[in-house]
Structure formats: structure tokens, C-alpha cells
Amino acid sequence: MIESGADERSMTDGAAAADAYTLAARVGQALLKHGMLVATAESCTGGLIAAAMTSVAGSSSWFDRGFVTYSNEAKMEMLGVAPATLERHGAVSEPTAQEMAVGALSKSGAHIAVAVTGVAGPGGGTQAKPVGMVCFGWARRDGRVWSETVHFAGNRDTVRRESVTAALAGLEARLANG
Fold first, then answer.
1. What is the model's pTM?
2. In CATH, what number does 2-176 get?
3. Integer Cα distance of 12 and 2 in angstroms
4. Would you kindly state where each structural domain of the chain is located, as residue ranges?
5. Measured between alpha carbons, how far is 8 from 6 in angstroms, rounded to an integer?
């Protein structure tokens, strides 16, 4: 089952940082409750999701590993993203985010994974994929895969921080819904 969606969001940098730690702690509690491990696959956030999660004491009980796959080559080599997906949809796309999440599961012992790929800026944006466009993917071992595209306002740091918060919120929602 694959689900996708789109949204526009904006929040302050301070709120995003505070929310990231709080969300990471709540995600950790949910993972412990379900006896699950998580893996991350990150491009534009460069490991910030993994950093937020591992900043929580006891995260070794529920955090398996993180992949930072900034280049297309890394996405293909480390996560198994298909070259055809990158050629057809580009690195910043829901299909790529989905394949990144599924790849993180296949290359780890995790039960659930989150992936993020986007245009943090200040350059690199196009009319079709503007600065602030971030695609998320989540996957579970039972075969469920979700994706969402969000357009964030703000500078590079803001886009990256808000992406971390959105990724963690998405994990929390997928854990709450079984």
C-alpha cells in the first residue's frame, strides 16, 4: 500500500529544534512499546534526523542506523534506489523518497524507516522543484509505504530543521496507526 500527499508548512527555528527532540523522544517511546527499531535515509538533512534521535538517552534500544545519501550515486549504491527512478522523477521526488525508505529497511535490521530528500537552498531550486520542497518517505517491514511532499518557507537551516520535525512527526503518526 502506497500513500502520498502534499502540504505547505512554516515554523520558527527554535520551535523546530525543540519539537525535534520532543518528537524523537516520543518516537523512541513508541518504538520501545512496539519492540521496533528505526533506520533513517537522509539527503538534504545530512544526518540531522539520526542526530535528533540519538540525542535521546537510551536511543540504542530503538535506533538501528542512519544512511546519509547526499549524491545520486550514494542513493543507488547504499539504498538500491533505481537509476530509472532518478532519471524519470529526479532525486527530489516521492518515488525516490519511497525507494530510499524501502532501501533503508532492506539494508538494516529496522522495522520502520524514514527517508528525506529535498531542495534546502539557497540554490538548486527550479520552478518545478523550488527551494523548500522536501519529499518524505516512510516504510514498514509489512510492506506499507507512504510519502508526502512539503513546501517549507525560510532559509537553508530552517528548511532542514523543519524537515527533521516533519520526518519525526510522520514516524510518530505511522507508529500510532499500527
1. 0.91
2. 3.90.950.20
3. 31
4. 2-176
5. 7
